[in-house]
DNA sequence: CAATTTAATCAAATTTACCTATCGAAAAAT
DNA sequence: ATTTTTCGATAGGTAAATTTGATTAAATTG
């Protein structure tokens, strides 16, 4: 029967591509690690590491086995966590990823409440684009991620806690002041400025307008909503902003107007995603409820 | 560091609820197993088994940890499989579940081809309803399942290989012979006979007609499509049949007519589902392609 | 109350794991 | 061309762990 130790050692070798360094990283002698690897390879009936005395490299089959070994290790780690973090929720650190078009608008609304209810809870936030976060959740690098759906999250589970529409934001001087709603047909697409490719907000905004990525003003593809808003304030064009960002972006700029985009919605749905079999699901659903409640309280319409 | 052996022993105790029997099942002495369990509990800092000298029972936290241990074991088994079954696809037995409204119509069309291409391949088929199969895939009891979508498969991955519409099947005497198409509005819903609850075919058929489960003739909720067809032949009413079943059901009964149901479709999508991280994905996609090709060849329209 | 069953415990034997030291090959330095 | 360094494999000795078999204590059964 193979052992976890063997897998642990093998993963260390993969990381260092060096038996001595791997051994040090594992706090064992090089010889102990060396025999463990040899024994593992014998038991599996295959070669994981191609090694002459100067180079170590991973075989093709080795890569496959090692990636499975990572998964085993992940599951074991979760088992240990299960046993220790035992019962008491929010006693261990949790790392959650969030995309740039949600983080700055959602987190200020919800983090104070979380700190209030669970003062012991250590929450670490990272910010990346959706596809990066999805990979990280799959790998177990992070506990969960907050994304806007629709997005391809095959094999993951989602807990939706909010859905919202887009608002068309323009300069007061450049739109008739009576308008209460606007449809995509009434938008001057050529003047529309959106985030640069890779941000799901752009895809969702275009989808809400039933547009493919073709016509809007791509000279100004921007890196952040804040920049976009500054450009709108500078009368360079207009943009679309999700509801949860309105308060921060618009109401600090009295020159701007936000008008509801009247297209069938919701235009994006916000969800926490986790791996299936993830062990801290209970905490995630508690978070989900807090997120939902705080958004209901603090989002302007 | 905990070991796989400990987890293995613990799972044996869970299964037998008896240290001696568990020890025999593991081919070790009772004392060896006993100390291993004690050590595991010490390392995890919790009690897994509540045991006085006459009874063994699993604690609440124990259940949680043991279910995680099962998952670890599953992943390790897959790792071993990866190493051995290595390289040569279709050399190991594979178990696939299929629902009753697909199996009898799909398998005769595809199994001969599979036997021809991969004569060594041992494929075991089980037949259950969708929700059972989904659970079995999640648990790793079976390698994959063939289902009709839409169906709730959160956390699983799907490979769709076919989509099809329903056909309205009635007795020749009971419908005008010129009809080429029929819409749900033209259907006499009260005479419509469907499978009994629990079969996703019923849900898909009703969804195709934009109906909730309310009006159709539920006196005849049947257990199989073959029975339904016999009842249609007996002039007890009409029914809806998926395309892939037409050849077997209808063209052996010359008294019947099948007419395409003209509602926006496809009315159901057929897919292979697997757990994410499942190791034999390559074989599944090969199967998927065979399924698709054979259906294209052999399905009548 | 004796007989039986069961899990824990103990001591002894066995197996395994690990460390140090060494080797031999290959690469780098001189 | 020679020496030195680097690297992974290997051997031998020792410590640690595991396993076994016997024993114990508690609970159940007849």
Structural notes for this entry:
The structure is a homodimer of 301-residue chains. Chain A has 301 residues and is of the alpha/beta class. Chain A folds into three domains: 4-84, Orthogonal Bundle (Arc Repressor Mutant, subunit A), CATH 1.10.10; 94-163 and 268-298, D-Maltodextrin-Binding Protein, domain 2, CATH 3.40.190.10; 166-261, D-Maltodextrin-Binding Protein, domain 2. Chain A is 42% helix and 22% strand. Chain A has helices at residues 4-16, 19-26, 30-44, 60-84, 103-117, 130-139, 200-208, 225-233, 246-250, 281-298; strands at residues 49-51, 56-58, 94-98, 123-127, 144-149, 157-164, 166-171, 181-182, 192-195, 217-222, 238-242, 256-261, 268-274. In chain A, helix 1 (4-16) packs across helix 3 (30-44). The longest helix of chain A has 25 residues, at 60-84. Chain A is elongated. The A-B interface holds A 1-5, 8, 44-46, 61, 64-65, 68-69, 71-72, 75-76, 78-80, 82-84, 86-87, 138, 154-157, 275-277, 279 and B 1-5, 8, 44-46, 61, 64-65, 68-69, 71-72, 75-76, 78-80, 82-84, 86-87, 138, 154-158, 275-277, 279.
- Number of H/I helices of chain A: 10
In CATH terms, what is the architecture of the largest domain in chain A?
A: 3-Layer(aba) Sandwich
Task: Compute the number of structural domains of chain A.
Answer: 3
Quote the distance from N terminus to C terminus of chain A: 61 Å
Rg of chain A, please? Answer: 25 Å
* Helical residues, percent of chain A: 40-55%
Task: Give a brief outline of the structure.
Two copies of one chain form a homodimer. With 301 residues, chain A is of the alpha/beta class.
């Amino acid at each position: 029967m193979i052992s976890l130790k063997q897998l642990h050692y093998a993963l260390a070798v993969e990381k260092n591509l060096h038996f001595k360094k791997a051994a040090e990283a594992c706090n064992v002698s090089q010889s102990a690690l060396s025999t463990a690897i040899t024994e593992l390879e014998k038991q599996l009936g295959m070669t994981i590491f191609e090694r002459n005395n100067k180079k170590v490299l991973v075989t093709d089959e080795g890569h496959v086995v090692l990636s499975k070994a990572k998964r085993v290790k992940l599951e074991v780690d979760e088992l240990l966590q299960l046993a220790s973090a035992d019962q008491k929720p929010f006693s261990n650190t949790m790392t959650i990823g969030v995309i740039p078009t949600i983080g700055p608008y959602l987190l200020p609304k919800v983090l104070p409440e979380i700190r209030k209810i669970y003062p012991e809870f250590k929450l670490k936030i990272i910010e990346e684009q959706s596809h990066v976060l999805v990979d990280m959740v799959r790998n177990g690098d992070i506990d969960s991620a907050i994304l806007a759906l629709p997005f391809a999250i095959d094999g993951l589970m989602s807990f939706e806690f909010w859905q919202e529409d887009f608002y068309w934001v323009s300069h007061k001087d450049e739109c008739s002041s009576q308008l209460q709603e606007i449809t995509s047909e009434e938008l001057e697409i050529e003047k529309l400025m959106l985030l640069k490719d890779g941000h799901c907000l752009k895809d969702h905004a275009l989808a809400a307008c039933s547009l493919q990525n073709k016509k809007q003003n791509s000279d100004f593809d921007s890196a952040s909503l804040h920049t976009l808003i500054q450009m709108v304030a500078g009368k360079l064009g207009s943009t679309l902003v999700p509801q949860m960002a309105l308060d921060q972006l618009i109401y600090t700029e009295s020159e701007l107007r936000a008008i509801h985009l009247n297209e069938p919605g919701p235009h994006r749905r916000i969800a926490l995603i986790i791996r299936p079999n993830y062990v801290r699901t209970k905490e995630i659903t508690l978070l989900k409820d807090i997120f939902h409640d705080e958004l209901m309280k603090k989002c302007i319409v």
